Amino acid sequence: MRNLPFGPSLDGLKRAAAPQLPYRPCDPKSYRLSIGLIACGGITLQHLTAYKRAGYRVVALCDLIKSRALERKKAFYPRAEVYTDYRDVLKRSDIEVVDIATHPEVRAEIIKDALNAGKHVLSQKPFVVDLDVGERLADFADRRKLKLAVNQNGRWAPHFSYMRHVVQAGLLGEVFASHLAVHWDHAWTAGTVFDRIKHLILYDFGIHWFDITRCFLPGKTARRVHASMSFAPKQVSKPPLLAQALIEFDDAQASLVFDGAVKRGRLDTSYIASTRGSILSAGPDLARQNVILCTEKTYARPRLQGSWFPDGMHGTMAELLCAIEEEREPTHNARDNLKSLALCFAACQSAETSRPVAPGKVRRLL
Predict the structure, then answer these.
(1) What span, in angstroms and rounded, lies between the C-alpha atoms of 277 and 273?
(2) Does the 14-22+154-308+330-353 domain belong in CATH 3.30.360.10?
(3) In this structure, is the dihedral angle defined by the CA atoms of residues 165, 168, 171 and 174, taken in order, positive or negative?
(4) What is the architecture, at CATH level 2, of domain 34-124?
(5) 292-318 pLDDT, tens per residue?
(6) Which of 197, 300, 312, 339 is the most buried (most CB within 10 A)?
């Protein structure tokens, strides 16, 4: 493995073998559940790439623009039926799981209809624009005894997944700090529908980082969020491409930095500090990451396989299918995801008002 261009101090530490942890997506024992995909936009290229590789059965593809669904059918599932009305997908008794990949503004009604039709649901992120609506959907899923999960695919990005498994395994003791920074070019959104998202960075993009922050600080309750946003010089995208957030806990802290207008020298770093050590992941982008785990006496450099896309999409569907098979709640269930959205909404409000905001106080994205 190539050495990191920079890294933590390794003074006094001996190199050791990296812990073997289940960071890769784990498939269910049975592949017999049939899946319907509702909406076939750009991101679903990654969904279907992951599902095809995993051997999942996608039997229906739906989009308001029929040519999109036909394109996905030709590329991935030639035997799948194509629809332009999602209700026709929900009428099929053989479909047990639906992947709903529409934009959030129209997704809540589709999710409710899917649950009402007896389908388990994987919802694209961000889950909802209103926390109260999200709670009602989670309650409805419980009453229907169905699984409702959110596509927080970043949890299964190899570096993030390995880091959260290190935390879950207790290898670091108690975590008291998480610091994440992304320096990249998000200008591809200029002139697209994403130009209409006011909080493009903190909300649509940043929800992955708010969510993984919670995974890195299990059992911690966020008290206040301070955030800001601003325009980068000469940016062409309409929403601000620069944003940052500080999250206060009683005995911990977290920071998120988003520089979305970096043309050269891009960098992505994630750092966790704890009572027994630290773990750092760094690289030029989200796909290429090197990890160093430091404990009390040793350090290790795990050799990770895979990449965020499409493995993250594999992970979200795999976890939902395993939860159905094992009759348990998926770890990325809707009710859990609302806690990540509460952090995100608080950050957006703080960026608007220049004041700290308590998570949960802002119920709806403005």
Answers:
(1) 6
(2) yes
(3) positive
(4) 3-Layer(aba) Sandwich (3.40)
(5) 999 999 999 999 999 999 999 999 999
(6) 312
